[in-house]
């Protein structure tokens, strides 16, 4: 694969025969809704990679022109302070002048241009066959009060997954298997945990001009991992192309009352005719969170003691504060009119983060630190128009380093339990390219990419009673590598001009994993992990059609085949994850291990032996009807996803006598009669990943926007997805995000013309989710299962250390005796109040101390009412205020490790120059 890509690149570089390119032009007008020309509007010409090629201003009649433009796909942006900014895609054909006309509005309904649906092309999203969410710069800043993953709020078909205060992700149609890209460069790596990216929130919201989310697999263009879809982060670019050098920039600051968070950023740019540079420095402090009603629904106090979380006297959640800071430098240089060089470097860091769901917010442990999460991400891109036979050539090299240190102590608050320090750094070197050629009504593209991941992962245990340090097996093998690459072709064909548009892509994928025992230190003269390797190959593709029934009304169909090769986390992971403690297949080879029937303590052996993992495959079918005119737009989509060879987490079943065996950093301390085993790091049974099921997801998505008066508009969306295991009919054990409930969003906006203010009321809606899988029911974040033994452990350990219970007669926590301070109850009384022997609670007969019973068998629905608005003091200064969760509702989605924020006021200030 590496040799193939290098040979293609050399052939391109050595090809000095440059085809003649037609000198074309783009003409356009800028008008207001009355038809009058708008003068001095800022007009910019961008290519499909969002690099600024030229800039101008409209004249007194609203006219503008760009000359000597090679054939290709472009975006034109128009902005003026008293109107909403607009973007339009334009295709320039050889020897033809393109025409584009803008009608500026005060309150634009929605963003319509996508630059990621098809590589190298910009297009109106109504004309592409895929389902695309386009989130604008203003929407990003409005939603991301704490972390970037909040961009998913208010969107169709996607949802926010918030594992902890610092860690979050965007789920697409209920799937965590979502690829993340920055300016088309792969951000996801092979050590990504459980489908979500620990480092996603280290991308800085203030440095983005838009986010695009593809709601279906597009692994034909972007490679492995995007079975649910892809999240494309599109950076703000330096402005240049000016006749005279110009400085520009902005300053933003904010404060949010729910977590007393505050922060600011300074963004400064400088541009000349051929050169632009942009720098962004940012810092924010997130303090302890107050959730709705001042209660934590999944607190260990509620889970194990049956009391409200505020018996401690605190309405804010401890261990939810953190600090984030960083900077970005972006440079664009155009040595000639047909060439551009683009460089970007980003450094971000989070300090003080913790896994609240493993502490008082779930298991009751004392230590669950996320220390020094650091991101170094850089790329350099070269773009050339007119390369031999092809119209455009783009290539980039990238560097991506993601570092973390996790410090964990299990035992439900046992201060004498071993402390595990798990340091991990994954470094990725990447390369990608494409070449495209535009024919009459047809655009052909050839592309490829290659990414090499290498892991450094030293891990050790510390005995707090003796201080003895012991080297142990890391979460993923130290020195392990993963190579992922592919070649693909794409073709877009205008079969019938302005009536039928066809699009397709086909890709060959290769993934290769290797770990070497020689990279492990020797403990007792044995390596901590074995030699292991695996190779995966497959084809993925998509084909779609968009039919324009009449102007503004389109019918679109898209079929895509997704591919996901097992990554390092799947193949080599052994350690603590969001839903418990999991092992890799290589580490239990020869132990007679089988896969459990469920993912909880009640699992029995399925009789299926644990075996090496295979690639996951999905077949996705979308049918969409779309309508748009200047006052109304709407889209209705139905979809089916057949998800095969699904890698799920199930309970590990071992033969009797497994107690005392070591699994990585943990020793097996318990085993039930069914063969499920337990380690101190987690109160759930040990899990193993396997290709154990085939899943079908079906759903419907609807969104609309309507301007019923010049100053008034209304909009909203609705999403519903239903998933079943095709063998059992039950809810499948997908990832760790949990299947979202039916979700909705509504807004009503007032923005009068000629005024400096706007105001909007909006509501977030979610239905009850009662289809929880066995993995969800056992998960501390969702079902919050517990047993009488676990109640005892927390009562004597974590609760005692925190002063919620008293120690035993010897004055030491961890021993028998003591009472619950708030009620005066003994341990036995608490156990009998919550889980009396012989009773049936939440469908479970409590047969003994180890019977595990979920606290929740469903996640309640909710409706949040909010209002926000903004006021412009001038063209340069603006303030926005957002009053959220006015009713102070308690709410949580499946897979969240923390409840949502309570009643909150956010104030933002922006100054531009």
Structure at a glance:
This protein is mainly β and 913 residues long.
Q: Number of DSSP helices?
A: 9
- The CATH class of the largest domain is Mainly Beta
Query: Whole-number average pLDDT?
Result: 91
Strand content: over 45%
Kindly identify the CATH topology of the largest domain: Maltoporin, Chain A
The CATH homology group name of the largest domain: TonB-dependent receptor, beta-barrel domain
Largest sheet entry: 22 strands, antiparallel, barrel
Name the CATH architecture of the largest domain.
Beta Barrel
| Count of beta strands | 53
- How many distinct folded domains? 3
| SS-derived structural category | mainly beta
Shape: globular
Q: Unreliable runs, pLDDT <50, ≥5 residues?
A: 1-22
Summarize the amount of helix as a percent range.
under 10%
The radius of gyration computed from the alpha-carbon positions, rounded to a whole number of angstroms, is: 28 Å
Question: How far apart are the termini?
Answer: 48 Å
Q: Can you give a write-up of this model?
A:
- The protein has 9 helices and 53 strands.
- With 913 residues, it is mainly β.
- It has 3 domains: 1-105, Sandwich (Immunoglobulin-like); 246-778, Maltoporin, Chain A (Beta Barrel), CATH 2.40.170; 788-845, no CATH class.
- The strands form 10 sheets. The protein has a 22-stranded antiparallel barrel. It has a 5-stranded mixed sheet with strand order 10-15-16-13-14. A 4-stranded antiparallel sheet has the order 3-2-5-6, with no helix packed on it.
- Helix 7 runs antiparallel to helix 9 (827-834).
- The model is unreliable at 1-22 (pLDDT under 50).
């Amino acid at each position: 694969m590496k040799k193939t890509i290098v040979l293609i690149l050399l052939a391109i570089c050595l090809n000095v025969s440059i085809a003649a390119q037609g000198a074309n032009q783009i003409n356009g007008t800028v008008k207001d809704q009355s038809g009058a020309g708008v003068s001095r509007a800022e007009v910019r010409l961008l290519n499909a990679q969002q690099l600024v090629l030229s800039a101008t201003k409209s004249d007194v009649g609203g006219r503008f022109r760009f000359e000597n433009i090679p054939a290709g796909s472009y975006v034109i942006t128009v902005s003026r302070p008293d109107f909403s900014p607009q973007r339009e895609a334009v295709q320039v054909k050889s020897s033809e002048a393109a025409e584009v006309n803008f009608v500026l509005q005060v309150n634009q309904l929605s963003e319509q241009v996508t630059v990621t649906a098809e590589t190298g092309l910009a297009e109106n999203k109504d004309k592409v066959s895929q389902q695309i969410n386009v989130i604008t710069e203003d929407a990003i800043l409005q939603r991301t009060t704490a972390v970037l993953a909040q961009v998913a709020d208010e969107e169709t078909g996607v949802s926010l997954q918030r594992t902890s205060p610092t860690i979050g992700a965007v789920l697409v149609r209920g799937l965590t298997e979502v690829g993340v890209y920055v300016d088309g460069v792969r951000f996801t790596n092979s050590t990504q945990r459980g489908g979500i990216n620990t480092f996603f929130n280290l991308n800085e919201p203030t440095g983005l001009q838009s986010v695009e989310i593809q709601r279906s697999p597009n692994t034909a263009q972007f490679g492995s991992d995007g079975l649910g879809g892809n999240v494309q982060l599109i950076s703000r670019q330096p402005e240049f192309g000016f006749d005279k050098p110009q400085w520009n920039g902005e300053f933003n600051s904010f404060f949010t009352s729910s977590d007393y968070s505050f922060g600011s950023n300074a963004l400064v740019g400088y541009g000349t005719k051929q050169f632009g540079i942009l720098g962004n420095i940012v810092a924010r402090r997130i303090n302890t969170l107050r959730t709705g009603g001042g209660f934590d629904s999944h607190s260990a106090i509620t889970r194990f003691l049956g009391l409200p979380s505020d018996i401690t006297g605190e309405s804010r959640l401890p261990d939810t504060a953190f600090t984030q800071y960083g900077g970005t430098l972006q440079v664009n240089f155009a040595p000639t009119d047909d060439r551009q060089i683009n460089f970007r470097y980003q450094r971000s860091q989070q300090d003080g983060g913790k896994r609240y769901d493993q502490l008082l917010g779930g298991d009751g442990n004392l230590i669950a630190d996320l220390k020094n999460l650091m991101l170094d991400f850089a790329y350099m891109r070269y773009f050339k128009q007119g390369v031999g036979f092809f119209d455009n050539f783009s290539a980039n090299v990238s560097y991506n380093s993601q570092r973390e240190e996790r410090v964990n102590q299990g035992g439900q608050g046992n201060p004498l339990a071993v402390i595990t320090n798990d340091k991990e750094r994954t470094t990725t070197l990447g390369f990608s390219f494409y070449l495209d050629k535009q024919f009459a009504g047809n655009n052909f593209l050839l592309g490829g990419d290659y990414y090499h991941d290498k892991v450094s992962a030293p891990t050790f245990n510390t005995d707090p009673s003796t201080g003895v340090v012991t080297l142990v097996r890391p979460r993923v093998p130290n020195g392990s590598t993963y190579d992922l690459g592919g070649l693909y072709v794409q073709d877009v064909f205008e079969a019938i001009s302005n009536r039928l548009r066809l699009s397709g892509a086909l890709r060959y994928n290769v993934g290769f994993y290797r770990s070497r025992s020689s990279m492990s230190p020797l403990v007792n003269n044995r390596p901590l992990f074995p030699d292991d390797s695996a190779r995966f190959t497959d084809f993925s593709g998509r084909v779609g059609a968009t039919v324009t029934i009449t102007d503004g009304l389109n019918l679109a169909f898209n079929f895509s085949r997704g591919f996901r090769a097992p990554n390092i986390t799947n193949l080599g992971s052994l350690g603590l994850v969001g839903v418990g403690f999991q092992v890799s297949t290589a580490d239990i080879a020869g132990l007679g291990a089988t896969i459990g029937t469920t993912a909880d303590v009640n699992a029995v052996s399925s009789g299926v032996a644990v075996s090496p993992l295979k690639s996951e495959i999905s077949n996705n079918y979308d049918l969409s009807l779309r309508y748009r005119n200047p006052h109304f737009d709407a889209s209705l989509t139905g979809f089916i996803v057949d998800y095969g060879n699904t890698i799920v987490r199930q309970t590990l079943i071992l033969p009797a006598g497994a107690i005392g065996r070591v699994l990585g950093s943990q020793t097996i301390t318990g085993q039930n009669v069914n063969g499920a085993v337990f380690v101190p790091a987690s109160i759930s049974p040990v899990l193993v990943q396997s290709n154990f099921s085939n899943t079908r997801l079906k759903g419907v998505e609807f969104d609309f926007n309507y301007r019923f008066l010049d100053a008034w508009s209304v909009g909203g969306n609705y999403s519903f997805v239903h998933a079943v295991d095709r063998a059992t009919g039950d809810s499948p054990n997908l990832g760790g995000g949990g299947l979202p409930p039916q979700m909705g969003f509504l807004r009503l906006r007032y923005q009068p013309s000629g005024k400096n203010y706007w105001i909007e009321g909006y509501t977030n809606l979610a239905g009850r989710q009662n289809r929880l899988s066995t993995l969800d029911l056992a998960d501390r974040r969702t079902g919050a299962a517990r047993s009488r033994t676990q109640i005892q452990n927390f009562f004597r350990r974590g609760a005692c250390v925190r002063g919620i219970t008293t120690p035993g007669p010897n004055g030491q926590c961890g021993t028998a005796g003591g009472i619950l301070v708030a009620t005066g109850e003994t341990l036995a009384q608490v156990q009998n109040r919550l889980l009396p022997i012989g009773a049936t609670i939440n469908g479970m007969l409590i047969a003994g101390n180890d019977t595990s019973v979920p606290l929740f068998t469903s996640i309640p629905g909710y409706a949040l009412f909010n209002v926000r608005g903004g006021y412009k003091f001038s063209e340069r200064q603006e303030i926005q205020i957002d009053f959220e969760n006015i009713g102070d509702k308690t709410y949580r989605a499946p897979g969240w490790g923390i409840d949502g924020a309570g009643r909150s006021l956010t104030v933002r200030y922006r100054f531009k120059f």
